[in-house]
Design brief:
Shape: globular
Number of domains: 1
Oligomer: single chain
Helix content: 55-70%
Largest sheet: 2 strands, antiparallel
CATH superfamily: dinb family like domain
CATH class: Mainly Alpha
Distance between the termini: 21 Å
Number of strands: 2
Radius of gyration: 17 Å
Order of helices and strands: HHHHHHEEH
Amino acid sequence: MSRCAHIRMMAEYNQWMNARLYAAAASLPAEELRRERGAFFGSLLGTLNHIMVGDTLWLQRYAKHPAGFPLLDPVRAITPPTSLTQPLFDDFAAMQAHRHRLDQVIVDWAASITEADLDHLLDYRNSKGPNRRQFFALLMHFFNHQTHHRGQATTLLSQAGVDIGDTDLLVCIPNHLPL
């Protein structure tokens, strides 16, 4: 599998898992979404919000790649979050709708990335200052960060009595055995 094919698969996995995660979260009353559960970001809502904050910050950094990536224009228009815990939405339904749109941007953008784009050293700033890192490695971090915190979110859902089922990437990897 090429690096670009791997990125496309990760974007599709991200979209699939977020849809399942948000559907499961939507089954809970608002007070359960906001209930402090001792997680890194407190509640299920705080955890989902952090994933979206991280995605937004990284996509805005990626939008500065010399390739231009016009498919990231919708993300360029978002006011950058000022902290990793900044609440982006007061209403869960609005958050869910934004997640859906953001995931489609990620899928479409991932399909536009070329092998030539991946070896570029991307300059960006974070709270610790300037950085320059390989774009492909940063993309792997992007998808790993999502998976890490979705794992926390599925634990929080489980604590609330909601099982979302299989979450493994393996579900998205084609099986090449003959039928």
